[in-house]
Amino acid sequence: MTPATILVADDDRAIRVVLSQALGQVGHNVRAASDASTLWQWVRDGEGDVVITDVVMPDENALDLIPRIRERRPELPIIVMSAQNTLVTAIRATERGAFEYLPKPFDLAVLMSTVERALAEARETEKLGQATNQATSAPEALPLIGRSPAMQEIYRVIARLVNTEMTVLIHGESGTGKELVARALHDFGRRRDKPFVAVNMAAIPRELIESELFGHEKGAFTGAVNRGVGRFEQAAGGTLFLDEIGDMPLEAQTRLLRVLQSGEFSPVGGRQAIRADVRIIAATHRDLRQMIQQGAFREDLFYRLNVVPIRLPPLRQRPEDIADLARHFLALAQRDGLAPKTLDASAVERLKAYSWPGNVRELENLMNRIAVLYSESMVDRRIVAAALAEQEPVAVARGNGGNETLSQSVERHLDTYFRAHPHGLPASGLYDRILREVERPLLALSLQATRGNQIRAAELLGLNRNTLRKKLRELDLQPSRGAK
């Protein structure tokens, strides 16, 4: 390894000492400063092979210094460290020409390997990264929140992707914030001044998906009295976010694949090709590889979409982010006119102890409930426990004496059903069949619990009384004689 001169700038003396010792032990020469002006003087004098700098220093923000360094010495790699480990910081560091962004606290081994990588790349070419991105007018509001290592990695990936046209596939459980990632890629990218159009595949009837995406010509089908503009046209020049892509039927998958291959599409019933000037970002909570094996998702489409995968961790895997998220949601509630609230340490511990099956969306709903229903300004463990109790899933007994949620019970029975039909499933109608099988005992037992009182049963179920009566007739369920 050839010795190099490393310029270190950080107002924390302990960090300067640790980096000087670690880099010195592997043979590098280190010059360390506590302010940006000294660092800038060394750079102007032509010193240094790599810069390692903190963001916030007494005399200047390093993010404002980076463009000057890049203009003066475009070949000099700059490694940015920051305790302000937010998505905005990561994106701005990358946009302004940083070689790498490392959130504090960082792993020293990671920093050392980053220095060696920067030196190796600098030796291969005299000028690294000729294209210097200009600072953007990105919104200050944080689109994503989290200081955990998992979220820091997400930030770094987004920072590298914002100014590319690469197709992205976001994987993650429901409620993890997949659309927020898609919006961040759009809002901080080249297409931010153009539309961001989101489409949820699971919310569109199968027979209408192609018309919804590609539009239709007048008379293309019964009811098409006018020309319909599809989401591809609405998103022209911008970003099209295809949420729950795993719910797209195969025939629509085939058409989407042709668009990705050719860059053109035609409305339903039309012959004129339209250029698809959009960036595609897709998302799913499903295992698409398993769906490919089952014949439910096209393998070639998967590889077209999965150019850059981003996998969002569930909230239970990043408990260190829960407090920041909870405070953020309480602050949003205050901005909407509700009284300010503060979380105490016991509340934070109770929040961290919960498993969050609904992920960040569930946490947001909980904070909104607390903001609305509880008058106390200090939120403690008792309030959190009470609010959580209101949203606990219904529990049912298992044969072995244990308990499981109703959702888990249904999943277990459905798994048994699918395993019992390895060579063929019903052609169609499974969704309605399952709903009927759940609905019938639910209504019957609700009537039994209310002794046939339809008014009380409707209240218990959260249904309109007339709706309940209609369902009882459809299912041929007769309430006991004398019931209201």
Identify the notable features of this structure and list them briefly.
single chain, 484 residues, alpha/beta, five-stranded parallel beta sheet, 20 helices, globular
Topology:
Elements: E1 5-9, H1 13-25, E2 29-33, H2 36-44, E3 50-54, H3 62-72, E4 78-82, H4 87-95, E5 100-103, H5 108-124, H6 149-161, E6 168-171, H7 178-187, E7 196-200, H8 209-214, H9 231-234, E8 239-243, H10 250-262, E9 264-265, E10 274-275, E11 279-284, H11 288-293, H12 299-305, E12 308-311, H13 322-335, E13 342-343, H14 345-353, H15 359-373, E14 378-379, H16 381-389, E15 395-397, E16 403-405, H17 406-419, H18 430-449, H19 454-461, H20 465-474
Parallel strand pairs: 1-2, 1-3, 3-4, 4-5, 6-11, 6-12, 7-8, 8-11, 13-14
Antiparallel strand pairs: 9-10, 15-16
Helix pairs in contact: 2-3, 4-6, 13-15, 14-16, 18-19, 19-20
Largest sheet: 5 strands, parallel
Taken from the alpha-carbon principal axes, the silhouette is globular
Query: What is the helix content?
Result: 40-55%
Our Rg estimate from Cα atoms comes to 28 Å
- By DSSP, the count of extended strands is 16
User: Mean pLDDT across all residues, rounded?
Assistant: 83
N-C termini distance = 88 Å
* Percent of sequence in beta strands: 5-15%
* Count of helical stretches: 20
**Unreliable spans:** 125-141
- By secondary-structure content and strand pairing, the structural class works out as alpha/beta
Order of strands, widest sheet: 2-1-3-4-5
